[in-house]
Amino acid sequence: xxxxxxxxxxxxxxxxxxxxxxxxxxxxxxxxxxxxxxxxxxxxxxxxxxxxxxxxxxxxxxxxxxxxxxxxxxxxxxxxxxxxxxxxxxxxxxxxxxxxxxxxxxxxxxxxxxxxxxxxxxxxxxxxxxxxxxxxxxxxxxxxxxxxxxxxxxxxxxxxxxxxxxxxxxxxxxxxxxxxxxxxxxxxxxxxxxxxxxxxxxxxxxxxxxxxxxxxxxxxxxxxxxxxxxxxxxxxxxxxxxxxxxxxxxxxxxxxxxxxxxxxxxxxxxxxxxxxxxxxxxxxxxxxxxxxxxxxxxxxxxxxxxxxxxxxxxxxxxxxxxxxxxxxxxxxxxxxxxxxxxxxxxxxxxxxxxxxxxxxxxxxxxxxxxxxxx
Length: 374
Hints:
mainly beta, Porin, 3-stranded mixed beta sheet, 24 strands, globular
């Protein structure tokens, strides 16, 4: 069963291009699909997530902020057997803001909030001994920074941690990735297994208590972003029709952020997770004609344990997605996609104590990407 214009059909496996909303701080899913495209290839995209995370019990209408993150990649087939690539994404992050007029999460007109930002640059070199096999590896450069403010009765009020701020200054560190791919182009079959190492950061930290009255600077906080494994699979199932799947494991169950002075004051971590993340997406793509393609997918994420931190009170999800691709010419295309997420109910905790439940939560994700072959 040979498919027409195999390279176009392969692109369907990346649809719909929409952001992940996964366990822990996971965002991008750390795909290397661009590096596995044939020939010389470049792409740039942007993803947007609009979540609604609420608690009727705690009178919180919505504490999850909208966010967006870009991605980009370039891959060059330097020789018949050697390829090189550079991938950029923002793999982990958080963006939350509670209402300041809620005494559980607000005080003195200020609110509990968190912002965590990461940037990844992965450099890859691949060796293709035959048309079917591709072995690849390379270094990963990563930066991490974050700020968190705790306010309100959930953290014991102003006399305890309900007046706490932390600034984690940007830190850079290095890790690595390695993997292999196998393909049979005649039937659009491709499978890839990619391992990414954990990356250890030590961030210069300033902690403040009592609405800024007591400042504790010049400490280091260790943050270790998790190791992970991605398994990608696709195959032609009929002329111009492709089935695809992705399975991801991320090692969150030992993740913890333990600032020195917060831990001394309370004996607790700022953020921690109790379970590893497992996620999966399966779908089908169809090429309708020389210009138009589309896809549909279903996704699942296990979450990283429940109860969860109040800074991200959801537990996994189910999702459905739709995507489309328009190719004005054979060497470039535009993709767009949308996903709907049913976010899992969760019990939010601080210091091992349950604060309340967050239920009936959802999110909408949107994505746009442009790809070019040269």
